[in-house]
Amino acid sequence: MSTQEIGAFAAANSEASWFCCGPAWGRCSSAGGGACGNCRSGSYHCAWPNASQGCFDITRPDRCGDTLARRGCGHTFYVQHLCGTKEIAVKIADCGPDTDRRCGEKKCCGGKCATNRLMDLTPAAFSAIGSLDAGLIPITFRS
């Protein structure tokens, strides 16, 4: 990625996976409420690696060359599958993913590719733009 601050205003590409939080929903058993305490698998929520300094210290997106804007609990991102047309709004409800463990990871569709996992989506949000069976999709997102 470039040295510009991702998540500020312009769109950026990334990989996204899905995770469970809150009460049981769909494929998810009950899980904790995430770093913000209100995360729900059945809601359009996401996890962001720079939701707080403590979160950043764990996820370390800078080790992958990504400079991410600090965006806290409740901040809204607009997300779209790189090979789709539907855009959804998701709110930060957790810290994650562990970006530095996946530096250089790449996911493509239709010749459009994204690298580095910068966002996790709840199953409700993920399934609105892709198949849960995919597990990982390339996305574009903006603030």
Structural write-up:
With 143 residues, this protein is mainly β. It is built from 2 helices and 10 strands. It has helices at residues 53-59, 123-129, and strands at residues 5-6, 12-18, 45-48, 67-68, 76-81, 87-95, 106-109, 112-115, 117-121, 136-142. The strands form 3 sheets. It has a 6-stranded mixed β-barrel with strand order 2-9-3-6-5-10. It has a two-stranded parallel ribbon with strand order 1-4. A two-stranded antiparallel ribbon has the order 7-8. A hairpin with a 5-residue loop joins strand 5 (76-81) and strand 6. The longest helix has 7 residues, at 53-59. The radius of gyration is 14 Å and the shape is globular.
Write the layout of secondary structure elements.
Elements: E1 5-6, E2 12-18, E3 45-48, H1 53-59, E4 67-68, E5 76-81, E6 87-95, E7 106-109, E8 112-115, E9 117-121, H2 123-129, E10 136-142
Parallel strand pairs: 1-4, 2-9, 3-6
Antiparallel strand pairs: 2-10, 3-9, 5-6, 5-10, 7-8
Please name the defining characteristics of this protein.
single chain; 143 residues; mainly beta; six-stranded mixed barrel; 2 helices; 10 strands; globular
